[in-house]
Write a structure and sequence with these properties.
The protein is mainly β and 280 residues long. The chain has two domains: 155 residues, Immunoglobulin-like (Sandwich); 110 residues, Immunoglobulins (Immunoglobulin-like). The chain has two helices and 18 strands. It has a five-stranded mixed β-sheet with strand order 2-11-10-4-8. The chain has a four-stranded antiparallel β-sheet with strand order 1-3-9-7, with no helix packed on it. The radius of gyration is 22 Å and the shape is globular. The two termini are 26 Å apart.
C-alpha cells in the first residue's frame, strides 16, 4: 500500500496545505477536513472525517494510513518515522459503502502510549476505492486505487512552531524564487507568504502565496514562480521582503523578512535555455 501511495502522491504533493480532492467518479468525491490538528488530552485525540460521494455510482472504500513528512522540496511518504502516528490510530468504520449523493463519516481515535515523548505525531489518511477484480480466477478479490487523502496531526504536549527565514535564491531552471524557512519548534504550521521584490528602492512586483506547510523541526522551500511566462529577470541585486503569517490553536504568528536576492548573468542564461526533452 505504501508503494501505491508513493507512486501516486507526486501528482499533487506540490500543494502546501494538505491536499485537494483527487479526481474520481467525474471529480465528485471529496473529503473534509483536508488537514486535522488535535492536541492529545489524557493521551487521546478524536475526530471525524466526512466523505461525500457526489457521483451517480456507489463508492466502496477502505481506510489506509502511513507516516509522512515535508522535506525542503515538498511532501514525502515514509517507511517509518519517530513521529509516526499510525500505530496509535483506530477508525470506525474501516471499510464503507457510500451511496450516490450521500455522505459518510469516519470516526478516528488516537490513543498515545504514556511512554511516548512529548512531540507531534503525524499520519496521512487515505480513502481507497475497492473495485471488483475482473479476473474470474480471483473471486471476491478487489483492486485498490487511491482516491482522496488528508493529513492528521496529533500533538502530545504544549507545542508551538518557531519560524526563521534562512536565505533566498533564484532557481532559474524552473523560474522560481525560493525562500528557505526553518521551523525550530515542535509543531508543524502552514504559513501564508506576502512578498515584495524591489530593486534600488523601487518596487518591481509583489504577491501573496497561500499557505505552505513547514514541518516541525525541519525546513522548507517556499516556492514562488517568477517571472511570468515570456518575461526574464535583469541581473543584479534585489531586495526580497514581506512577511510570513500563520494561525495556530490559541495563537498565531507573523514573521517579517527582508533579504537580498542576487541574480547573476549565469542565472539569466540558464533561464533562457530551452528545457531538455523528456523521453516518455
Amino acid at each position: 500500500m505504501l508503494k501505491k501511495l508513493q507512486n501516486f502522491l507526486p501528482l499533487f504533493c506540490c500543494f502546501g496545505v494538505g491536499f485537494v480532492s483527487i479526481p474520481a467518479y467525474s471529480q465528485q468525491l471529496s473529503v473534509t477536513p483536508l488537514v486535522i490538528e488535535r492536541k492529545a488530552e489524557s493521551g487521546q485525540a478524536r475526530g471525524v472525517i466526512d466523505i461525500f460521494n457526489g457521483s451517480d455510482k456507489p463508492y466502496r472504500a477502505r481506510v489506509s494510513v502511513a507516516p509522512f513528512t515535508y522535506s525542503r522540496e515538498g511532501f514525502k511518504v515514509l517507511q517509518s518515522s519517530p513521529n509516526d502516528l499510525t500505530p496509535y490510530l483506530t477508525f470506525s468504520p474501516r471499510e464503507l459503502l457510500i451511496a450516490p449523493g450521500q455522505k459518510r463519516s469516519i470516526r478516528f481515535n488516537a490513543r498515545l502510549l504514556p511512554s511516548l515523548p512529548k512531540g507531534e505525531y503525524r499520519a496521512i489518511f487515505s480513502v481507497e476505492e475497492l473495485t471488483d477484480n475482473n479476473d474470474s480466477t480471483q473471486k471476491n478479490q478487489f483492486g485498490i486505487a487511491v482516491n482522496i487523502i488528508s493529513t492528521i496531526y496529533v500533538r502530545n504536549g504544549d507545542l508551538a512552531p518557531i519560524l526563521k527565514v534562512e536565505n533566498v535564491f533564484y532557481n532559474a531552471k524552473v523560474k522560481e524564487i525560493r525562500l528557505l524557512v526553518n521551523n525550530r519548534g515542535k509543531a508543524t504550521t502552514r504559513a501564508k507568504t506576502e512578498w515584495n521584490l524591489s530593486q534600488n528602492g523601487k518596487l518591481v512586483t509583489s504577491g501573496i502565496l497561500e499557505e505552505t506547510s513547514i514541518i516541525a523541526e525541519g525546513d522548507r522551500y517556499i516556492r514562488i514562480p517568477y517571472p511570468p511566462q515570456g518575461q526574464t529577470l535583469t541581473p543584479g541585486t534585489y531586495q526580497f521582503s514581506g512577511q510570513l503569517k500563520w494561525d495556530f490553536p490559541n495563537k498565531g504568528g507573523t514573521l517579517p523578512f527582508n533579504v537580498n536576492l542576487s541574480i547573476s548573468n549565469e542565472d539569466i542564461n540558464t533561464e533562457s535555455q530551452p528545457s531538455p526533452t523528456i523521453n516518455k
